[in-house]
Specification:
Elements: E1 5-13, H1 18-28, E2 33-39, E3 42-47, E4 52-58, H2 61-75, H3 83-95, E5 98-106, H4 110-127, E6 130-132, E7 137-139, E8 145-148, H5 164-167, H6 175-190, H7 214-234, H8 240-255, H9 263-270, H10 275-283, H11 285-294, H12 310-318, H13 323-329, H14 335-358, H15 367-381
Antiparallel strand pairs: 1-5, 1-6, 2-3, 3-4, 4-5, 6-7, 7-8
Helix pairs in contact: 1-4, 6-14, 7-8, 7-10, 7-11, 11-15, 14-15
Pfam families: DUF4272
Length: 396
């Protein structure tokens, strides 16, 4: 048997879930596979020659954002003269919500290599995925060169693609949806920031918004606020961690919300966390501000020029003696009002991403606030089709 070398090909997709990717690979390699082994976000195909193909999928929102931001920064350096094509490629990268690493072995047998690559591109076509070679060249599902780091491409134009599972969610935008886009982007331009030229396909429409109950929002608010208080205390001088635990306990006893803690929140409150994680949880105050606003109990600054007023939020929340009293005081804002706020956050988040790519300084705009607002509003509107707080993503 000839000597084999490890190879890695990466697929980037805009798709609804992992299962669609795994099934696509299983089907594409069906004629060459003798066994299939599944794991969480992973799959191993045992081929007829006893070699293996391993798949590992990333769909975590924060990790995805880091990967795609790095990818955009990298390919933005390609000397491509076609500015329209470059803009489309950048937009395509921004949309990715799944990354699939495909590990396998290559040998000197050209027929075997060709068969593997044909199956891999069959999976790419089935999932509408862009394929990245180790040479740092991007290929379309039809194996055409989309962009290389040297600035080469087989195409003159490109329209960003997504899997049918996403396209099936095609939205019907009414006049107010369209006007919201115009108003927000005009405002962004007037502030001197980069603004997108056309509506993003992930902009929500009124018929897609699904709001939780007042009780569900209130419990999520309390979970976020209490863990943020604990995180803030943990970041202070020595001895504050115990005070943070005490404050969390007081809020827990007052509002009885612990049954609604997410898995990450449960892990966080169990023991002292690393500084970076505590910082991330402290930023969640901004999410709490959005939910408190949605309940009609707080005024939200949607200019994103400054962070929320934690002291004022604390006074509002602690003024209620119980969970029931807080819920009775709430006046849930309308779907339209919440949708309009979501549209603002979406396009301001796009602006922040674009500024990072082009190294533009955004004066008087807190990108961290924008991202947290977007996160909370995605959860409120059920934009990701999940109420699992840890699984919200903020694609732009």
């Amino acid at each position: 048997m000839s000597e084999r070398q490890d190879a890695v090909i990466t697929l980037y997709s805009v798709i609804k879930n992992d299962d669609l990717i795994l099934e696509a690979f299983k089907k594409a390699f069906a004629d060459f596979t003798i066994d299939v082994l599944y794991a969480d976000h992973a799959m191993k195909l045992i081929l007829q020659d006893n070699s293996e193909i391993e798949l590992h999928i990333i769909d975590d929102e924060k990790e995805m954002r880091g990967q795609t931001d790095g990818m955009m920064n990298f390919f933005a350096q390609a000397p491509l003269n076609n500015e329209e094509l470059m803009a489309s490629v950048m937009q395509q990268i921004q949309l990715f919500n799944h990354i699939t690493g495909v590990n396998f072995q290559l040998d000197a047998q050209e027929a075997r290599t060709n068969a593997i690559m044909e199956c891999l591109f069959a999976a790419a076509r089935s999932t509408s995925s862009i394929v990245l070679y180790p040479s740092m060249s991007l290929f379309t599902p039809d194996a055409k060169l989309l962009l290389s780091i040297e600035g080469a491409s087989d195409l003159e134009t490109w329209r960003p693609i997504a899997h049918q599972s996403i396209l099936d969610e095609e939205r019907v935008y009414d006049a107010e949806d369209k006007q919201n886009f115009i108003d927000v982007t005009d405002e962004i331009k007037k502030r001197g920031y980069p603004a997108i030229a056309s509506m993003l396909p992930i902009q929500l429409s009124l018929d897609t918004v699904e709001l939780p109950s007042v009780e569900t929002i209130a419990k999520r608010l309390l979970c976020i606020f209490a863990t943020s208080v604990m995180a803030e205390c943990e970041l202070m001088e020595d001895g504050s961690y115990a005070f943070g635990v005490q404050e969390f306990s007081r809020l827990k006893d007052q509002f009885a919300f612990v049954d609604a803690l997410s898995e990450r929140e449960k892990a966080f409150v169990m023991e002292a966390a690393e500084e970076q994680e505590a910082i991330q949880f402290s930023w969640r105050y901004e999410c709490a501000a959005v939910l408190l606003w949605a309940l009609g109990l707080y005024g939200l600054d949607a200019t994103y020029e400054s962070v929320c007023n934690v002291s004022e939020m604390s006074k509002i929340i602690r003024s209620y003696s119980s969970f029931d009293e807080l819920c009775k005081a709430a006046k849930l804002r309308s779907k339209r009002e919440i949708l309009n706020m979501h549209t603002r956050a979406l396009y301001y988040d796009w602006t922040c991403v674009e500024a990072r790519i082009k190294h533009i300084e955004l004066e008087n705009l807190e990108s961290g606030v924008v991202q947290e607002h977007h996160y909370a509003l995605n959860w409120l509107c059920n934009a990701n089709h999940t109420r699992d707080w840890d699984q919200i993503s903020c694609n732009t």
